[in-house]
Amino acid sequence: MQKRLVLDQQQIAIILKRFCFQLIENHDDFENTVILGLQPRGTLLMDKVVAQLEEISGVHVPSGYLDATFHRDDFRRRDFPLKANETKIDFLVEGKKVILIDDVLYKARSVRAAMDAMIAFGRPQKVELMVLVDRKYTRDYPILPDYCGVNVNTLDSQYVVVEWAGQGPEQDAVWITEKVNP
Fold first, then answer.
1. CA end-to-end distance (rounded Å), the chain
2. DSSP-derived secondary structure for 70-84
3. pTM of the model
4. Coil, strand, or helix at residue 29?
5. How far apart are CA 2 and CA 177, in angstroms?
6. Contacts of 41 (CB under 8 A, 6+ apart)
7. pLDDT digits (tens, 9 = 90+) for 96-130
8. Which CATH architecture has domain 10-153?
9. Could you tell me the residue ranges of all domains in the chain?
């Protein structure tokens, strides 16, 4: 399998810091803001952003994990059953500014499903989307990120793989991989 490096650990660190400063600029004191990481991979990015945001600003921002498995439009169309992940939200989103975080924005189906799932916790005042990688020109839904680390042009035969140190790889990295035909 061929791999092409898109972001290395240093570039990811710069993007995470930029995300934090953008959030500080746009959300003042975070009094009415909550952050939700989309299960499974958005939670890893969210944990990093929340930790760095608290370190930089000294403010605790309520955060949680949101699983949208049963809200997906392809839930019953698969040959194998999908496994749900934990939803861990101990606050209401009613009237709050919500920042949804995911690692890669591809077709936008997961984000659409996440917005449906989020409504179970109340009607937000505003919803923003933060992604590390935006796979441009691949949308099924007209959804764009408010905060984006990097835009990449990819083919349907390619995957974007986000690796986090501590989850197996030695360093944080983002790769584009191609399917290998047998």
1. 11
2. GG-TTTTSSSSPPPP
3. 0.91
4. coil
5. 6
6. 102, 103, 104, 162
7. 999 999 999 999 999 999 999 999 899 999 999 99
8. 3-Layer(aba) Sandwich (3.40)
9. 10-153
